Amino acid sequence: MEKLGFGYDSVARINPNIIYACANGFSQTGPYADRPAYDDIVQAASGFGMLNKRLYGKPGYAPMPIIDKIVGLILASSVTTALLHRERTGEGQSVEVPMFESITAFNLVEHLYGKVFEPPLADMGYPRAFNRYRRPFKTRDGYIGVMPNTQAHWHTFFGVIGQPALREDPRFTDFAQRTIHIDDLYGVIDQALPEKTTDEWIRLFLEADIPCAKVNDLDDLLEEEHLKAVGYFQRVEHPTEGTIRLTDVPVKYSKSPGAIQRLAPNLGEHTRALLEELGYSEKEVSEMAESGAIRTFDS
Predict the structure, then answer these.
(1) Residue 64: phi, psi to the nearest 5?
(2) Domain range 8-116, its CATH number among 3.60.40.10, 1.10.10.10, 3.40.50.10540, 1.10.357.20
């Protein structure tokens, strides 16, 4: 943008109150400033991709553009913070969200672990997150996610699975001991849950107020009971693409509720309206379209 003459300083001279946000691959003050970056590159550089090696023996990427999604959320919250500052002070500002640094911070919330301290108390990497049993558990007919968390949860859980004597087992009597013996603890769950179906366990765990959920495949989500009840998937008619399925706005505002108000535009659909809004005449826009300088949906 600097090369095109649209850097922050140039734009701020026109509108000092502007919030000028960008998400670069790397901080512009470091040696990687000019490097290109995509989701996979930042997964690799930030240590995110190497987390899989500790569990499965080799690095791997998340099966989605997770970095792009997370950075988008950070960018949105950062702009909101800058807007609040402007509301209070009248000052605009530049907001830089470097992908590499942002995801490294995200990654190290728990995984800086023992090296938070000097000298280090332990190696980096939160051990509980790398436990081989920390995964969906096999049931008689599928998989379930179950998360006893509090002291009361575990006390109840041992009874639900038919092993109340474990309540007195010194390995599991409190949080500190459960953390030390987390392999043994998850092993107990792994061995117990194949005895019943997923639905049977869910009924028992919910009655005991123990957090749990069926492990859904992607296709299961379209018929998921709760999502259907809240009207999560919306079928709408697109003017050129026909019937399409969209997800509803998940965040609920009491005063300004969200809704699907517009559908994805066709390429160039708004070019003409935007240029005319900027002061170009209908004739000038048509000439630009005829010359190939711009693309409009009707050209």
Answers:
(1) -170, 160
(2) 3.40.50.10540
> Following DSSP, what letter does each residue of 50-63 receive, concatenated?
THHHHHHSS----S
Asked whether the CA dihedral 198, 204, 205, 206 is positive or negative, the reply is positive
Q: Report how far residue 272's alpha carbon sits from residue 278's, in angstroms, rounded to the nearest whole number.
A: 10
Helix (H) or strand (E) holding 213: strand 212-214
Residues 62/48, Cβ–Cβ less than 8 Å: yes
Sheet with 212-214: strands ordered across: 137-138, 143-146, 212-214
pTM: 0.86
Cα–Cα distance between 177 and 95 in angstroms, integer?
A: 45
Contact yes or no for 183/131 (Cβ under 8 A): yes
Residue 270 and residue 295: Cα distance in Å, rounded?
A: 10
**With DSSP H G I counted as helix, E B as strand and the rest as coil, what are the percentages for the chain, rounded to 5?**
45, 10, 45
Distance between CA atoms of 206 and 204, rounded to whole angstroms? 6
- Segments making up each domain of the chain, as ranges: 8-116, 136-215
| 250-299 pLDDT, tens digit each | 999 999 999 999 899 999 999 999 999 999 999 999 999 999 999 888 75
Q: Going along the chain, which residue ranges are E strands?
A: 19-22, 93-96, 137-138, 143-146, 212-214, 233-238, 242-247
Instruction: Report CA Rg, the chain.
Output: 26
Fold designation for 136-215: formyl-coa transferase, domain 3 (3.30.1540)
